[in-house]
Specification:
Structural class: alpha/beta
Order of helices and strands: EEHEEEHEEEEHEHEH
Shape: globular
Protein name: N-formylglutamate amidohydrolase
CATH topology: Aminopeptidase
Strand order of the largest sheet: 1-3-2-6-11-9-10
Mean pLDDT: 95
CATH architecture: 3-Layer(aba) Sandwich
Radius of gyration: 18 Å
Strand content: 15-25%
Organism: Sinorhizobium kostiense
Distance between the termini: 51 Å
Number of domains: 1
Oligomer: single chain
Number of helices: 5
CATH class: Alpha Beta
Helix content: 25-40%
Length: 271
């Protein structure tokens, strides 16, 4: 079996204290999975990956000289932005598309996908965050990049971009403020999704550790080509650089999650 890396590491200046993540950067599958019984066209859709996020992350990483971790497998295989006990970790049906390669699925194959793809990706994220913390001597600022569809079930989504978060506002408030300040885009705050998701990437690596963070969503039609990626890299780059220069965004400060107490913190309550 040919080696398949479930992640890609992009090097950067770790001493700056900034980390970029792209959970759903790619729509790839190892050869032995074929196309999971799906037509090739499905892998050009949002259900397979976050359209536009791979080139946007690469552009931002280069512009900011920031290390980045990219997921190299389709979320149809297993979703790295879900906890290991999340029932949507391996989807049997995604936006109306039945995934034959995922149903039925044995417990052995479920564990195989966790061990080959999901866990190595998160180990790479943990290691990158730890390396940046050690090199900078402070808590990193972690930015996760995603994209969302222009329409959903016939509804035209008005937002150009959005910031998703749970209960730690430190990076979110200045980020939303700066995105809105240009006055030419509609910015969602926990829209079109709520950012409180137990076990997801931000929960696992940032909320539980008290690390400042934010998840940025960009509408897919706006970054579907190189011109759009350039426009959004030029918009986001200076904002992220400004946030990264804020000392208050490099301190450990654990906030309770809206999803409930952390494991081992059963008495923790929302303030």
């Amino acid at each position: 079996m040919r080696h398949y890396s479930p992640y890609e590491l992009i090097k950067g200046n770790s001493a700056q204290g900034l980390v970029l993540l792209a959970d759903h950067a790619m729509n790839r599958l190892p050869l032995e999975y074929g196309r999971l019984g799906l037509p090739e066209s499905v892998f050009e859709r949002h259900i397979a990956y976050d359209i536009g996020i791979e080139p946007l992350t690469r552009r931002l990483s280069a512009a900011l000289d920031a290390p980045a971790v990219l997921g190299c497998f389709s979320r149809l295989l297993i979703d790295p932005n879900r906890g290991e006990d999340d029932p949507t970790l391996i989807m049997k049906i995604s936006d109306g598309a039945v995934v034959p390669g995922n149903h039925p699925i044995s417990d052995e194959e479920w564990q195989n996908r966790l061990n080959r793809f999901h866990r190595p990706y998160h180990q790479a994220v943990s290691q990158t965050i730890a390396e940046v913390a050690a090199a900078s001597g402070k808590a990193p600022l972690v930015i996760s990049l995603h994209s969302f569809t222009p329409t959903w079930k016939g509804y035209q989504r008005p937002w150009h971009t959005a910031v998703l978060w749970d209960n730690d506002p430190r990076a979110v408030f200045p980020l939303v403020e700066r995105l809105k300040s240009a006055g030419d885009i509609v910015v969602g705050n926990n829209e079109p999704y709520d950012g409180a998701l137990r076990g997801d990437t931000m929960y696992r690596h940032c909320m539980m550790a008290g690390i400042p963070h934010a998840l940025i969503e960009v509408r897919q039609d706006l970054i579907a080509d190189d011109a759009g990626v350039t426009t959004w890299a030029e918009r986001l780059g200076p904002i992220l650089a400004e946030l990264n220069a804020m000392p208050e965004l490099h301190a450990y400060e654990r906030h309770p999650s809206r999803t409930g107490a952390y494991d081992g913190d059963e008495e923790e309550k929302l303030s």
